[in-house]
Design goal:
Elements lengths: L10 H10 L8 E3 L5 H5 L5 E8 L5 H13 L5 E8 L8 H6 L9 E5 L7 E3 L5 H10 L11 H12 L5 H11 L8 H12 L1
Parallel strand pairs: 1-3, 2-3
Antiparallel strand pairs: 2-4, 4-5
Helix pairs in contact: 6-7, 7-8
């Protein structure tokens, strides 16, 4: 039964999203499988960053992935997901492993799926949160990094090189109000620039 306040057209999406993340190992990541993977790619305008990995991942790479999940949360229309692949017994999600031509040595393997890249673009770099975020930003995902915001860092650099011109404060203010309105660090850039200008 659909709860009040949820438009009927969105009810199937709400149900699917509630079920997708139910068993996720990493907080903030959807857990996808053979049945839900293609269905999740059909949502218009959504971008998914999907990790294919062993059934019970652990270690430094998994810790980096979990950090990425927490940083991805405020990004609109972007979700992180994982597909756990079982290599014994029932071979859960093995069809997806075969579809993307993965071997156990490839784990964890990351793919970005977007309206522009329905077949997925594979990430080939090191599994470090800063490098993952940089790669995602190069593919149009407006994610802030662990400690800074790249675009605002560039504005600050221009601010200093120009002899503290006020136009750069205006640019930083606009970025903080628009692209980075969900990032608590963004207004700090503006405040610090204004303090320095005084």
């Amino acid at each position: 039964m659909r709860p009040r306040g949820v438009p009927s057209a969105r009810w199937p999406l709400v149900c699917l999203l509630a079920g997708i993340g139910a068993d996720a190992a990493a907080l903030g990541a959807w857990r996808l499988d053979n049945y839900t993977f293609d269905k999740s790619l059909q949502f218009l305008g959504l971008t998914l960053f999907v990790k294919f990995d062993e059934m019970y991942p652990h270690g430094d790479k998994e810790d980096e992935f979990k950090t990425l999940c927490t940083l991805a949360y405020p990004v609109p229309r972007f979700f992180v997901a994982e597909v756990p692949i079982q290599d014994y017994g029932t071979l859960e999600n093995d069809a997806l492993r075969e579809r993307f031509k993965l071997t156990k040595e490839d784990y964890p393997a990351f793919f970005l799926f977007s309206p522009e890249n329905k077949e997925g673009v594979r990430y080939e770099g090191d599994v470090k949160v800063d490098e993952l975020i940089l790669w995602l930003r190069q593919h149009g995902i407006k994610m802030s990094s662990v400690g800074t915001i790249v675009e605002l860092d560039e504005v600050v650099q221009k601010f200093f090189l120009s002899g503290l011109e006020g136009e750069h404060i205006s640019v930083a203010t606009e970025l903080a109000k628009t692209q980075y309105s969900t990032d608590r660090k963004a207004p700090m850039y503006v405040k610090i620039m204004e303090k320095i200008k005084e």
